[in-house]
Amino acid sequence: MPKTIWLIDGAYLLKSSAAHGKFDYIKLKNELEEINGGEFKEIYYLNSVKDSSAAQQNAFHNWLKSAPPTGPKMRVKLYGLKEMSVRCGECGQTTARPVQKGVDVGIATLIIKLASQNQYDRLLLSAGDGDFEDAIDYVKSELHKEIWLAGFSGNVSPDLQSYADKVIWLEKHWDRIGMGNSPVADETE
Q: In what residue span(s) does the NYN domain sit (predicted)?
């Protein structure tokens, strides 16, 4: 059984799953571990938050850290948000919107750091951004790590797909991961 680490871009899973509804992180973890053929060595959840003192967000992130059977037992790394100016092509008006700050760098760093430390044989990545291509290429070609992706079709960069040893399309597992009665299994924006 290969040592497997699961890295999650929390915003990616939340936004990509929106068309299907809310999902349950415990059910998702269990489904992916079954596909993996055994338990994950570690799980890292990375995301940005608007306000780190928001009670509902804190409850969700604390729940993610909780061990089974209460929670999915993930290492949670939270980053701040930055304002990005967006100019409307039609009217020329500029508006600001919050965007993640540091999450992609954190994920890329973990991909390389954990591979260099031989913490995994298989990386399961739940992110869709093609910006991870160089990190994935390095750990696959130089460190000979196996790369799996778990995401939603239409929301995973073809650049990442080209390196994947396996792609798990989560919508095909929706009947087993969709939201049940877990009150804190989804993140509130």
A: 7-171
Residue 127: name the closest of 114, 111, 143 by CA. Answer: 111
Per-residue pLDDT of the chain (189 residues; tens, 9 = 90+): 899 999 999 999 999 998 888 999 999 999 999 999 999 999 999 998 876 666 667 889 999 999 999 999 999 999 876 666 677 777 877 776 555 668 999 999 999 999 999 999 999 999 999 999 999 999 999 999 999 999 999 999 999 999 999 999 999 999 999 985 444 444 544
SS3 29: helix
In whole angstroms, what is the distance from residue 3 CA to residue 123 CA?
9
Residues 6+ apart with CB under 8 A from 158: 130
- What are the two backbone dihedrals, phi and then psi, of residue 36, each rounded to the nearest 5 degrees? -70, -25
Please name each of the domains of the chain with its CATH number: 4-177 (3.40.50.1010)
Amino acid at 132: F
Distances (CA, A) of 126 to 82, 83, 166: 22, 25, 12
Is the sign of the CA dihedral 128, 131, 134, 139 positive or negative? negative
Residue 48 β-bridge partners:
79
Residue type for position 7: L
* Cβ-proximal residues to 154 (8 Å cutoff; 6+ apart), any chain: none
Q: Could you tell me if residue 102 is left (phi over 0), alpha (psi between -120 and 50 degrees) or otherwise beta?
A: left
